[in-house]
Amino acid sequence: MDPATTARLLITCADRPGIVAAVSNFFYNHGANITALDQHSSDPEGGRFFMRLEFQTPHIDLPHAVLERAFQDMVAGRYAMEWHISYAAQLPRMAVLVSRHEHALLELLWRWSRGKLPAAFSMVISNHPDLRERVESFAIPFHHVAVTPDTKAEAEAEILGLLDGAADVVVLARYMQILSPDFVAAYPNRIINIHHSFLPAFAGADPYKRACERGVKLIGATAHYVTSELDEGPIIEQDVERVSHRFNADELRELGRDIERNVLARAVRWHLENRVIVDGNKTVVFA
Amino acid sequence: MDPATTARLLITCADRPGIVAAVSNFFYNHGANITALDQHSSDPEGGRFFMRLEFQTPHIDLPHAVLERAFQDMVAGRYAMEWHISYAAQLPRMAVLVSRHEHALLELLWRWSRGKLPAAFSMVISNHPDLRERVESFAIPFHHVAVTPDTKAEAEAEILGLLDGAADVVVLARYMQILSPDFVAAYPNRIINIHHSFLPAFAGADPYKRACERGVKLIGATAHYVTSELDEGPIIEQDVERVSHRFNADELRELGRDIERNVLARAVRWHLENRVIVDGNKTVVFA
Amino acid sequence: MDPATTARLLITCADRPGIVAAVSNFFYNHGANITALDQHSSDPEGGRFFMRLEFQTPHIDLPHAVLERAFQDMVAGRYAMEWHISYAAQLPRMAVLVSRHEHALLELLWRWSRGKLPAAFSMVISNHPDLRERVESFAIPFHHVAVTPDTKAEAEAEILGLLDGAADVVVLARYMQILSPDFVAAYPNRIINIHHSFLPAFAGADPYKRACERGVKLIGATAHYVTSELDEGPIIEQDVERVSHRFNADELRELGRDIERNVLARAVRWHLENRVIVDGNKTVVFA
Amino acid sequence: MDPATTARLLITCADRPGIVAAVSNFFYNHGANITALDQHSSDPEGGRFFMRLEFQTPHIDLPHAVLERAFQDMVAGRYAMEWHISYAAQLPRMAVLVSRHEHALLELLWRWSRGKLPAAFSMVISNHPDLRERVESFAIPFHHVAVTPDTKAEAEAEILGLLDGAADVVVLARYMQILSPDFVAAYPNRIINIHHSFLPAFAGADPYKRACERGVKLIGATAHYVTSELDEGPIIEQDVERVSHRFNADELRELGRDIERNVLARAVRWHLENRVIVDGNKTVVFA
Question: In whole angstroms, what is the distance from residue D76 CA to residue D57 CA?
Answer without folding.
Answer: 19
